[in-house]
Structures
1.
Amino acid sequence: MGTTVRMTAAEARSAAAIQATIDGLGPAGGTVELPAMELELDRGIELRSGVTLAGQGADTVLRMKPGRVYPLSGYHNYGMRDVPLQFTDGLEPGMTVALRDDLHQGFFETLAVITWVRDNWVGLDTGLASDYLAERHPLLMTSFPLVFGRGVEQVAVRDLTLDGNREAQPGGVGGCRGAAVYFIGSSDFQVTRVTERSFAGEGLGFQMCARGQITDCRFTDNAGNGYHPGAGSTGVLFRNCISEGNGYAGFFFCVRANHITVEGCTFDANVDCGVSVGTRDCMNLLRDCAMRGNAGPGILFRDCVRPVEVHSCLVERCRLAGNARLTGKGQIDVLGDAHALILQDNVLIGAKERESAGIYLSPATTDIWLSGNTITGCFPDVIGSPESRAFQPPEVECGLEAVREEHFRHLARTKI
């Protein structure tokens, strides 16, 4: 199980000191427990395999330091572990940074830790994810996840309060390469009783990950999505989580996020939809959740066409009220070539600000099972042709409880 280190406020005086304690645990891992304190971070805290980072709940606050932007002095190319800057004032080894230009973002953005600084060059612990072009305004930013893991397993974050200090960030890190809490290429991770707000990007995100549990968390007021499982992530549970006031969706299933269970969660007052399901996001389960007051639909099955359509998902016993205030055709929108969906025993209540349907089924949808839904304050209750409706429930095996070893075959096997 490893060692437990309980740091004092004096010992946890900086992110660098916390990182040194984590690194000092060695291969056996262990737990680093932070005291009641408020600390400004000049870098992200990176977890190693087998490590738990814990705090004292509302009494342990980690806040992101105001960010800075460092323009590159010109073009620099893919794969290089260094980068030329116009100036390097304030940068030092161990700091976490993001790099991109106007064109190369998403997975073409680079998240890295500085390894050295000399003569307006900085070294990086990973190669650049793209060519960065002089005419596209390439830059390095002190933008980073507050807590993150790359290629790790058996890690946990619990009982922390995170402040992204969004108003003091000139730029953020993109959702594919970062979030306030972020994992990539990792497995067997847990995030428990974490409260986060105001990050210049996503709240909690993970890419190409397997087997995770996110429970009793609250992620609010972020520039992007509240929760973002993406890039083939499989076999994850979200339970009793809240996502409010985010700049896009409360919960965003990204590409091929499969066999994910979301239960007892709340997605309120987000700038777009409550929950968004899209490209190859299949075998997912939403149960006993609430989506209220979102500007877009409470649940959106995005406009994806074969062979990357949404299918084999179950939504049951959810309460959707007052959504589609500004956009969307219904409390639930099912678009594209979606098929083999079960929508049953849900309560749908229309928004007072704008009339919309209860459930909208686009013309290309097929095999959609509707049963036991209570719809009020919507007009009409359902929009959709008879050809979209199923005559009996489709056979679907969805959610974390249905995941099998073969469902992880699309992920890299290293540490997954």
2.
Amino acid sequence: MFIDHDESYEQIREAVKRLCDDFPGEYWRRQDSESRYPAEFVQALVDTGYLSVLVPEKYGGSGLDLKAACIILETIHETGGNGAACHAQMYTMGTLLRHGTEAQKQTWLPGIADGTLRLQAFGVTEPGSGTDTTRITTTAVREGDDYVVNGQKIWTSRAEHSDLMLLLARTAPREASPKPTQGLSVFIVDLREEVGKSVTITPIETMINHSTTSVFFDGMRVPAENLIGQEGDGFKYILDGMNAERILIASECIGDARFLVQRAAAYAREREVFGRPIGQNQGIQFPIAEAHIETEAAALMVERAATYFDEARPCGAEANMAKLLASEASWKSADVCMQTFGGFAFAAEYDIERKFRETRLYRIAPVSTNLILSHVGTHVLGMPKSF
């Protein structure tokens, strides 16, 4: 994926491919049809250290950069798998790593690195706020040595499979804060003792197997020592995590796109209709070629965004543009692949319809295409805000 990667990156890519050989299409189709969490696959990533790739070595991780994480996720998707089952463990802990105290890092990161603690849940979005994060209404009120949390989160994926959650809540009313982005705070929440008591997790059935949920908080007590950074400054703390999330998900989209383009090209070479391979027809060949070109162009934008992130340079625009271009390329590749396979694309055994459903998500989440366009229009090009 990256034009400047060295031998160690290639070794990671080849090793991940070998790991994914143990989880072929049949495995992913079974998880999808049964709405199962791919626990065996996630455990394999834990055992090989790939899930802790971004955790520094001093805390038991690999201490590698975001490019390495991108290669891992892209390769998983290019082989037909789905890294969404665990990608949050890579980017969510970044808020703790960059803004937590040393005591917090020592408490949580070693367990995250060795897999004994699962940090998969990122509690941000709410039913009434959507992408307008400043309008969340979940509150955290200080009472002695604790904060008491009340409210609801939605689209909190993998909460049922997490020990910990990174939670964004209001510690001051929006109208009482100098800026809408102030008055928000971030907490590490230990769900293990709270689920079934002050925390209720409700699965949401969706068109893809994404293990997403609604989470309700009713008087949940969080120790004040679990507050990350300064009270009220949480919004800026989660931005780093959001940029990493968008770059990593863009790499997944590149993997999906390459999987779909490769499948389409192979089928077009082999499938004969009217006495000739269908790939000989420009109506089939050209859309596949175009999807490939757009994928490789998007991959370069993902590379730039990851480079900026690893160099600690501002990368909000690059992360957003990478996510938009990659998600559009993967969606186009999915549509082209479906069209190439024709009726066979709807058969589950080819994995095309599964990937068609899975990759559609990323034009909406974790940030919608329209919001990215708004960000670029106002923050990059200086035009008036449209809302």
3.
Amino acid sequence: MDDTNDRPGASVRPDTGITPAASAFDAPSTRRAFLQRASVLSLAIPGIGAALASCGPAGKSGGAGTAAAGASQAPGVPRNPDSRLDTALHAGAAGATTPTSGAASVAYHRFDPALPPLSSERTLRVHFTSRAAPIRISDDTVVAAWTFEGDTPGPIVHCRAGDTVEFTLTNDADMPHSMDFHAAQINPKVAFRSVAKGQSVTYTFKPRYAGAFLYHCGTAPVLMHIGTGMYGAIIVSPAEPLPPAREFVLVEGEMYLGPAVNGVRPFDYTKMLSTLPDFVAFNGRPDQYARDPIHVKVGDRVRFWMVNAGPTHPCAFHVVGEQFDTVYLGAPPGNAIHGVQTFEVAAGGGMCFELVCDVPGEFPFVNHAFGHGQKGAIGYLVVDA
């Protein structure tokens, strides 16, 4: 079975190597009531103090008038919590929605886990667009996601340590969005700032260290933006190549979903705060690599670049019936440990795992924290003779 199935292309240049706790704010009767409700979340939502400082009485910018605008949405459209607490823009926009008409026609596609090849160029020019999109994650479930390039996770970016990445984000969504690259060392207040619909932000960085790094929307509340699908992986290869291998990228993400509206399930911010996900998935679709496994051959070295988007829980990565001969704790090829059965990848972190497939068979790869493995964080590595 081919593990390079097609998926929608990303809007990047071809040479890049890239293939409602919040609902407590709805229409408070007074500014005092608004502040009382907001104080409950002051530790849960980044920057809430600055956001509250800009709030005025009902009907003024940042006050209850914002919630009233969101309440006027069309019936039958799921409303994800909005980003009116964004401290970069102090936006007063209504909540973002994902239209549900034609949801039944949204096609399922397997997310290709193969690491894209490196470009021969040492400068990568990457242009992503942020937008809302319905994503079919299984035969019977479509979710109202916020995305980079129309998919969750977003496109895999592959570069070398020391390469120059020229990145542009254009926002085509109704609410502010931004981009935080964990592989960058850059002033986040400037580079990772939020932009409104129709605007763009551009910045350049050079990854210093090799490894598997997360990228994600950094607009407040960050929990909501990551939890609604705005994340992906940037894989930074070392300047001196690692031994040849079949290389795959797995990005674990949690899904916290509300009841379906017109066949589409919105993401639920209250559930995100409760930290009890409905699904946990590698590359955005629960159990997808159990239904459609990754195939390699006996003798292949397999390299998993494992990134954990969270937004909250760690991933105890394990391959049943095998051991990792090498796990890189930091930038490959240094910091290696050997003969490892399971190793935990923190939320917001990434690691590189290697094994040599010297025995044919079907080997499940899982989050061995099985409460999450049973919710979809499982797949099969099939080793063909």
